[in-house]
Amino acid sequence: MSKQVGVLAMYMSERRLEELSFFRKLSVLGQKLGVEVLVFTPDDVHDNGARIHALAYRVSERRWVRKWSKFPSIIYDRCRYHGVDNYRKLSLFRKKYTGLHYMSKPLANKWTMHQLLSEHTGIVPHLPATVRYQNTKDLGNFLKKHAVVYMKPKSGTGGRGIIRLQRLAGARTFMMQGRDPSRHIIPARRVSVDQIALRLAGWKLTERYIVQQGIPLELGDGRVHDFRMLVQKDGQGQWQVTGCAGRIGPRQSVTSNLHGGGSAVPMNTLLKNRFGNERKVDDIRKNAYELGIRVVEHLEKKFGAFCEAGLDLAVDPKGHVWLLEVNPKPSREVFHRIGEKETYRKAISRPLEYALWLARQKQEGSSGTKP
Known about the structure:
There is one protein chain. It contains ten helices and 18 strands. It is of the alpha+beta class. The chain folds into three domains: 3-102, Rossmann fold (3-Layer(aba) Sandwich); 110-126 and 222-363, D-amino Acid Aminotransferase, Chain A, domain 1 (2-Layer Sandwich), CATH 3.30.470.20; 130-213. The protein has a six-stranded antiparallel β-sheet with strand order 8-13-9-10-11-12, with helices on both faces. The two termini are 30 Å apart. This is YheC/YheD family protein. It comes from Paenibacillus filicis.
């Protein structure tokens, strides 16, 4: 009998699952590894937790079927927080079913994450200056120190609600552009500091926003870029950098997210185009990979064991690596986009391989995971 891994998901609308394509690929690879993948949401739990009405993908028939099952003991949490109701539903689920082994988990909002990462002396040099949004006066003072500033929602994903401010000549006027909370591009416009809060009225800046030093991300054609690194536990419970790829935003966009229309390019290709020097490229890549492992190991000490994280990185014109964001439920489509088939396969299979390792530890009577 194959081992089971439960994938905890969330219905978006009309009982539609956000990542069904990924779950199908997970199921196909799971069959090869002897793992049955059962996809369910908190809404699919019945009889007070005695059983779930899960989705299982039948590879031979190429279709999803509903299946009654007990809870799998190992849960891969892929829930994204879209709306208060979903957040509440997931929080209640986790509080009620504490006996399950969650191999992925929520970490922290951007502000708390910045504070935790700032405790590590080896990570601090890679963190942009970051403060909570307080008021217009404090924003003005921050803009005096940094020529480019980003305003970000503490709990946002996918580039939603991100504003970029660039100081223009005279230091009293700024070019403001970005994306609204629905991810639509906000065209560039000149504003004063006082006008910024007025234009963003209703965005609840004081409650929800952080302000961050901007790292120069523009390429020669004016488009912004960054890098998405995927760090995962392998089949021996050890952290590995699965891969890292570049992302280039569409014109007039301040973000490079693929969901927002960005394109993907291999890391080495992007670095070589910028720096040319092969040795410089190797050094940047090495520094980025070492930073990736350092970050997840530090966060694991704070939050307990988890299986993967997506790191958004920037490389400035001098080649210094900056950590922009940590995502505990990362997408892996960027590797598919750049044609790195083996990296993409690993990105999908590693959570299952880690789950099998966890199952073996349980059988052998081990209660923890390797550090």
